[in-house]
Design a protein that fits this description.
The protein is of the alpha/beta class. It has a single domain, classed as Inosine-uridine Nucleoside N-ribohydrolase, Chain A (Alpha-Beta Complex), CATH 3.90.245.10. Helix content is 37%, strand content 17%. It has twelve helices and twelve strands. α1 crosses α10 and α3 crosses α4. It is globular, with a radius of gyration of 18 Å. It binds alpha-D-ribofuranose and calcium ion (CA). The site of alpha-D-ribofuranose (RIB) has 16 residues, from α1 and α6. Alpha-D-ribofuranose binds next to α1 and α6.
């Protein structure tokens, strides 16, 4: 069976690192682009290049937006440490970004693989929103957009907003309103899908790649314990990738998703209309045509087992 063609737009980020290595192992990872988010564009780009170097992955990387398309520039989040990827000494990058902005790289890659490319957004949506504005034909060129972002319930960065959408809500709104088929893995499921202490120990005892990932996830789990009392290192981002490898590990509901832009307390919230309205009810009270497959449940233990096995397979 031919592997799904995918491009990952990311902000490494501990879970981004795992998502890149996982996708490279199981899918046709055509490229990586970076976006501000977990840390500065310079740091997330260096981090992504180090991950590609660690995995000995010959995959082009394009650097992208340093700030949101509309809102204020963010100060780096601290969940991922000062560098954005604290916890281990990754190899220095053995390559540089390509000489093309991420926005143009996304457009050119989609154009070269019309109808086939899945675009994964596992950081803020700034690059993808600008790409959709710059090249409206993207809406027909892209097979699907898979997003780690939003939530059907509680958030992480605020009570009701998840970080990736909150970091550039105007950009996320452009993506959800684009008409491209969307698959959304939100914080409601990803916060409960992570590696535990025993799995992290197994990774630490693995080969070079697995050991570095184990050290990263040991740090990330410690931070998650510190802030949220979680006892796992949530694998948020790989939840956006895994359905193209194993299509039975996440359950979805097709519904309308809107992004709140103005609420004083709710800016960056994804409003997922999960009501079971009748035809009449939808006509009278619906919030819009369903525009996304929204993750409702994961088979977390099986999903994480595949991820851990994949990291160990790098040696
Ligand atoms: O809210 C989780 C998301 O924020 C993940 O993509 C993580 O990498 C951070 O960017
Ligand atoms: Ca991320």
């Amino acid at each position: 069976m031919t592997k799904t063609k995918i491009l990952i737009d990311c902000d490494p980020g501990h879970d981004d690192a795992v998502a890149i290595l996982y996708a490279a192992r199981h899918l046709d990872l055509l490229g990586v682009s970076t976006c501000h988010g977990n840390n500065s564009i310079e740091n997330v780009t260096r981090n992504a290049l180090s991950v590609l170097t660690l995995g000995k992955l010959d995959i082009p990387l394009a650097q992208g937006c340093a700030e949101p398309i509309a809102g204020p520039r963010l100060k780096p989040a601290n969940a991922h440490g000062k560098s954005g990827l604290d916890g281990t000494d990754l190899p220095e990058p053995d390559r540089a970004p390509i000489d093309q902005h991420a926005v143009d790289f996304i457009i050119d890659t989609a154009s070269a693989h019309r109808g086939e490319l899945v675009l994964a957004i596992i950081g803020p949506s700034s690059n993808v929103a600008l790409a959709l504005k710059r090249e409206p034909r993207l809406t027909s060129w892209l097979r699907e957009i898979t997003i780690m972002g939003g939530s059907t319930g509680l958030g992480n960065i605020t009570p009701l907003a998840e970080f990736n959408v909150w970091a550039d809500p105007e950009a996320a709104a452009v993506v959800f309103d684009s008409g491209v088929p969307i698959r959304m893995a939100g914080y409601n499921v990803t916060s409960r899908t992570g590696t535990n202490a025993e799995e992290i120990e197994r990774l630490m005892a693995g080969g070079k790649v697995a050991h570095h990932i184990g050290e990263l996830l040991r740090f990330y789990r410690m931070r998650q314990q510190q802030f949220f009392g979680l006892d796992i290192a949530p694998m948020h981002d790989v939840c956006a990738i895994i359905p193209y490898v194993h299509d039975n590990l996440i359950d979805y509901r097709h519904c309308h998703v809107g992004v709140e832009l103005n609420g004083k307390l709710t800016r960056g919230m994804t409003v997922c209309d999960l009501r079971t309205l009748t035809e009449e009810g939808r006509a009278a009270r619906g919030s819009g045509e369903p525009n996304a497959l929204v993750a409702i449940e994961t088979k977390a233990r099986a999903l994480i087992g595949h991820v851990v096995d994949t990291m160990l397979s790098y040696g």
